[in-house]
Specification:
Shape: globular
Number of domains: 1
CATH architecture: Sandwich
Number of helices: 0
Number of strands: 14
Helix content: under 10%
Structural class: mainly beta
CATH class: Mainly Beta
């Protein structure tokens, strides 16, 4: 399930990272707010905690990640250079869940379903397969 929330929606983030008068190191892409919840197959919130990652299918260098809270909720941030900016890029994304674990050999869960981030505040329900 995906819901595009109304309101001011698009927050234009055009800034440059770097120092000095030279060329900018990294241009911050246009990002849109993304929050949501991770659900188990049975429809109940995923309570295992961990990390969630949205990787853009065409621009994977700008993946958005977030921490899955104990109630399954998450909020995405995109790594750009040495900073983390709120939101994710518009477009289709592959979603990966990394369960919280003390085990160093924990396996990530790569979902088959693709998720769309739109040009607005997004509220996305991610369901484990």
């Amino acid at each position: 399930m995906h819901r595009c929330m109304g309101g001011l929606g698009a927050v234009l983030s055009v800034a440059f990272l770097g120092c000095g008068g030279g060329r900018p190191a990294v241009e911050i892409p246009r990002l849109f707010p993304v929050s949501g919840i991770v659900l188990q197959k049975n429809g109940k919130p995923y309570t295992g905690a961990g990390l969630i990652s949205f990787e853009h299918l065409q621009k994977g260098e700008f993946s958005a990640t977030g921490t899955i809270q104990p109630d399954g909720a998450f909020l995405l941030m995109t790594s750009v250079g040495n900073s983390r900016e709120p939101g994710a890029m518009e477009g289709v994304h592959t979603v990966t869940i990394v369960p919280a674990s003390e085990d160093q050999d924990v396996q990530p869960i790569v979902l088959k379903k693709r998720y769309l981030v739109e040009k607005c505040p997004n509220e996305i329900t991610v369901t484990l397969e």
